[in-house]
Write a structure and sequence with these properties.
heterodimer, A: alpha/beta, 6-stranded mixed beta sheet, 12 helices, 31% helix, B: alpha+beta, VC0802-like, 4 helices, 6 strands
């Protein structure tokens, strides 16, 4: 199997640690010097760049959360001037305001580099044809794989999402060997193919699935393989970190986090105290080389653990297990992050419905569906069905605008949705992974 | 107070969410309140419904339903008397062609039949229906 960047990827653990420390020192100093936000944060925490002497000293740095990104909208966290920025992406924020991420030339290079290493690590190369069925646009999933594929020298088909008939046609006619998509979409595509009498394994060259953007399981990986003969490789990323970044190698046993690009910690979600390898906790990421939109001990909200044993592939870069949940109530629908707070915020714009709501997520034929149930206020009730339907339509349109995912809206009688003392549990997730 | 106000009939409009046996729940409240149902229809919205009921004691029925958690509104409708013979409806329609009807439903009440309609402009509707020679039922017939 080829290795994209042997020098970095095959660094022994001790040298990788030394490289990480060097990069962490440089990055901390950069943040201190170029960003009033980070300098202020470090001052408040009583830490200065010179205090970083060992890798463990990263723990002296303060955490960052999604709230910081929200408060920093749009440019407060950007460490470079517009002249140095080549691109923006945006992801959904927790309350309707998006999180804007900027990229310098090096940021884009490192992003592609990260995925090129990952894709090479399980067998892709310049002779492959990779169909990117992630959304192209503000969402980082499409363009991330796109440029990484080009960097690797493979052929990219920028199919984006939707139009499954066309996707299948391209897979058949252009000899597509790999597809980047959500696992549920790949399953769906497999079903559509079956209905059309296309046997993916016999009739096409598709063998690799670059899968992520939503929770999935090894059981689903097996099902995809049995059904289509496609091996699914798990991918992790987040727009805050650039986009899709890290993947499993050919061993399919944990996702490699490139140590020269990111420093990974697992902490106790309650106390913030660091946890040992093997212990389950919240993922905290410090990006070591990002220039425009750095991340200092960013609390991802994802629950996972670090696998310490060296990977048989020979890479000493740390691995994580599958994401095992969230510390907050974020859910992922068709690859898009959705926070119940966004739904709440959106519903609050409609005086006709109350503040209680319920979010019911289900999966119909491998595609996620979302139903938002809201209580109709008595004074907003009208005998006129057309007006009531229009209200429902308005609520649904606003949700779609805010969430980027279509939501079915159901109006219910006031007082019928569950009430909560303390933390509300508004999400009913009926999906099986 | 207009002379024609006696033709305004109080209909109960009840919001019905998409749950099994909501109709049963409405009927139970009315039964327990000893309310008699005179006319009735169900309209289907998107994921919910509106139950429309004519009853003998609308104010009491409304209070009982609200007490039970229902969202209820009064809507004024008109009751037009029809011949209970073939062509009974047709005979009315000619007099009604200039009126904008939002919805309607009918029931048989021998020896005649009744068409309940909700019109956009009720005052104007009453005048033109009467002017067309139609017989409107007085609300004392119901309440």
């Amino acid at each position: 199997m080829d290795v994209w960047n042997p020098h970095i990827e095959k660094l022994p653990k001790a040298q990788l640690d030394a490289l990480q420390l060097k990069l962490l020192k440089i990055q901390t100093r950069r943040m201190w010097e170029f960003s009033p936000f980070y300098r202020e944060r470090m001052r408040t925490a009583g830490v200065a760049p010179d205090d970083i002497r060992t890798l463990k000293d990263v723990r002296k740095l303060p955490f960052m959360t999604k709230k910081d990104l929200r408060d920093g909208y749009p440019n407060k966290l950007m460490m470079r001037d517009r002249g140095d920025l080549l691109r923006y992406h945006a992801s959904s924020g927790t309350t309707g305001k998006a999180t804007i991420v900027g990229y310098t030339k090096n940021d884009l290079e490192n992003w592609s580099e990260s995925l090129a290493r990952a894709m090479t690590s399980f067998g892709l190369g310049k002779n492959d044809v990779i169909q990117v069925a992630n959304t192209y646009g503000l969402f980082s999933g499409g363009l991330g794989f796109h440029y990484a594929t080009e960097k690797m020298g493979a052929t990219v088909i920028p199919a984006s999402t939707g139009n499954t008939d066309r996707q299948l046609e391209l897979i058949c006619d252009l000899g597509v060997t790999a597809m980047a998509a959500t696992p549920s979409y790949l399953m769906y595509l497999g079903e559509v193919a079956e209905k059309k009498g296309i046997d993916i394994h016999k009739d096409t060259k598709l063998r690799y699935g670059l899968l992520g953007g939503e929770p999935w399981s090894d059981r689903m990986r097996d099902r995809i393989y049995e059904k289509m003969g496609v091996r699914g490789f798990n991918c992790f990323g987040a727009s805050e970190l650039s986009g899709p970044l890290f993947m499993e190698c050919a061993e399919q046993d944990g996702i490699h986090f490139w140590g020269d690009l990111a420093y990974l910690e697992i902490v106790d979600p309650e106390t913030g105290e660091p946890l040992e390898p093997g212990q389950k906790g919240e993922m905290v990421v410090t990006m070591l080389q990002k220039e425009a939109f750095p991340m200092m001990r960013y609390r991802m909200g994802d629950i996972t653990s670090i696998m310490e044993e060296p990977c048989p592939c020979g890479r000493a870069h740390p691995r994580i297990t599958r994401i095992q949940g969230r510390v907050d109530d974020m859910i992922i629908i068709r690859g898009i992050n959705v926070f119940p707070s966004q739904v709440e915020h959106s519903l609050m714009q409609h005086s006709e419905v109350g503040n209680e709501f319920q979010l019911v997520v289900d999966r119909k034929g491998h595609l996620d569906t979302m139903l938002v149930r809201a209580e109709l206020k008595p004074e907003a009730f009208t005998d006129n069905i057309i007006e009531l339907n229009a209200l429902r339509e308005r609520i649904s349109n606003r949700l779609k605008n805010v969430l980027n995912v279509s939501a079915n809206v159901e109006l219910v009688q006031p007082g019928t949705l569950p009430r909560f003392e303390g933390k509300a549990k508004r999400v009913v997730d009926r999906r099986e992974y | 107070m207009s002379e024609n106000d006696k033709y305004r009939i109080k209909q109960l409009s009840i919001f019905s969410e998409n749950r099994p046996n909501r109709l049963g729940a409405v009927a139970k409240v009315l039964k327990e309140g000893k309310i008699n149902i005179l006319g009735f229809s169900i309209a289907e919205g998107a994921g919910y419904g509106v139950i429309r009921v004519l009853v003998d004691r609308p104010d009491i029925a409304r209070d009982l339903l609200i007490k039970d958690g229902f969202v209820v509104k009064f809507t004024e409708v008109l009751a037009i008397q029809m011949q209970d013979t073939p062509g009974g409806l047709f005979d009315l329609t000619d007099q009604m062609k200039d009126i904008n009807i939002e919805y309607g439903y009918g029931y048989r009440n021998p020896p005649y039949a009744v068409l309940i309609v909700r019109v956009e402009e009720i005052e104007q509707g009453i005048s033109s229906l009467l002017a067309g020679g139609l017989r409107l039922l007085d609300n004392v017939t119901f309440h």
